[in-house]
Automatic annotation (TrEMBL):
EC number: 5.2.1.8
Descriptive protein name: peptidylprolyl isomerase
GO molecular function, one term: peptidyl-prolyl cis-trans isomerase activity
Origin organism lineage: Bacteria, Pseudomonadati, Bacteroidota, Chitinophagia, Chitinophagales
PROSITE patterns: CSA_PPIASE_2 (PS50072)
Keyword Isomerase: yes
Key word Repeat present: no
Signal peptide coordinates: 1-19
EC category name: isomerase
Organism encoding this protein: Chitinophaga jiangningensis
Length: 213
């Protein structure tokens, strides 16, 4: 089965198994794609919708693009950390993590960016989409040993057949997945970048709600 067809099948199974209440559309200057926000990470779902309402994701930028890893959008780490240094009276607000065993970094998932804080709490205004790559059984076994974890068999099958970034599991909150148009993210992930992983030509995006119960 071709990669695109297999990815579509995996995502479709996810939709059937977990009918979610919120769908949003990302409109970029390279095409559009649809994202389902998970209901079992309700705080991140609602935080993302609140940021949408504030305009955070209106004509925003995918400002960090790494082939076979992620495309990241919103406010960069350095920008946030510099602002916090300049305004110590505001502290360093972060959003509490919602890390779920069943929400893992398979290809096409949506995660919340963060800095290296011990609580693994998220930034309010930074997201990423997983591109990743396929892994062999031996590579996954080695990763289990390195991290001291057990990767569920179901997840291993997806990482081997579709791909993703298993080393991020348990460290970042995953709160949605692409249901249509993953090829747009794949295309963006392959754009030329500078030495800081910034696309040479700006990649803009805006997010709108398609469905919300």
């Amino acid at each position: 089965m071709k990669k695109g067809m297999l990815l579509a099948a995996v995502l479709l199974c996810g939709i059937i198994a977990r009918a979610q209440s919120t769908l949003v559309k990302f409109t970029t200057n390279h095409g559009t794609f649809t994202v389902m926000l998970y209901d079992d990470t309700p705080k991140h779902r609602d935080m993302f919708l609140a940021e949408m309402k504030k305009g955070t994701y209106t004509q925003a930028l995918f400002n960090r693009v790494i082939k076979e890893f992620v495309i990241q959008g919103g406010v960069l780490d350095d920008t946030t950390l510099l602002y916090e240094q300049q305004h110590p009276e505001l502290g360093a607000p972060r959003f509490p993590a919602e890390i779920k065993l069943n929400r893992y970094h398979k290809r096409g998932t949506l995660g919340a960016g963060r800095d290296n804080n011990p609580e693994k709490a998220s930034f309010f205004n930074q997201i990423y989409f997983v591109v990743g790559k396929k892994y062999t059984e031996a590579q996954l076994t080695e990763l289990e040993k390195k991290k001291g974890v057990i990767i569920p068999d179901e997840h291993k099958k997806v990482y081997e057949s579709v791909g993703g970034i298993p080393r991020l599991d348990g460290d970042y909150t995953v709160f949605g997945e692409i249901t249509k148009g993953y090829e747009v993210v794949e295309k963006i992930s392959q754009l030329p970048t500078d030495k800081n992983d910034v696309p040479l030509t700006p990649v803009t995006f805006s997010v709108t709600i398609l469905k919300k119960k």
